[in-house]
Amino acid sequence: MPKFCIHEQHAGVCEKTGGYCSEGPCPYEEMVDYAPVVHGRWQSYESSRYVGADDKGNPKYRNIRIYYCSQCGHCSIIRTKGCPNCRAKMDKEETNELDKREG
After folding, report:
1. Any idea what DSSP says for residue 88?
2. CA angle 81-85-90, nearest 5°?
3. Is a pLDDT exceeding 60 seen at residue 43?
4. Which of 7, 8, 28, 80 lies in the 20 to 30 Å Cα band around 98?
5. Confidence band, pLDDT 50/70/90 cuts, at residue 20
6. Contacts for 20 with CB less than 8 Å, ≥ 6 apart
7. Nearest to 46 by CA among 65, 59, 61
8. What is the pLDDT averaged over residues 1-5?
9. What predicted TM-score, i.e. pTM, was given to this entire model?
10. Nearest-angstrom CA–CA distance, 75 and 9
11. What single string gives the DSSP state of each residue in 4-69?
């Protein structure tokens, strides 16, 4: 497995020597393997949320879908391709508790 400098944000300029870095692995830094890709899925449930008041002052509620990461539990109302918290790649099928019911 290829190894690369853990400080690769230097954009081509070596932080140690100040010169242009055209080589692959940096001889001046600690080498690490690529991090393993974590796979997960968005699980979801529906929730009623307060969105304001109508013209008469009565509270208005709206049903929204809440998604949470199967790896770390991070909640979001936006379903993205990856979890912003644990960086799990969301390529598994979405499930929720209602899908598991038999009937």
Report:
1. -
2. 25
3. yes
4. 80
5. low
6. 12, 13, 14
7. 65
8. 47
9. 0.52
10. 30
11. EETTGGGTTB-TTT-SB--SSS-TTS-EEEPPPPPEE-EEEEEEEEEEEE-TTS-EEEEEEEEEEE
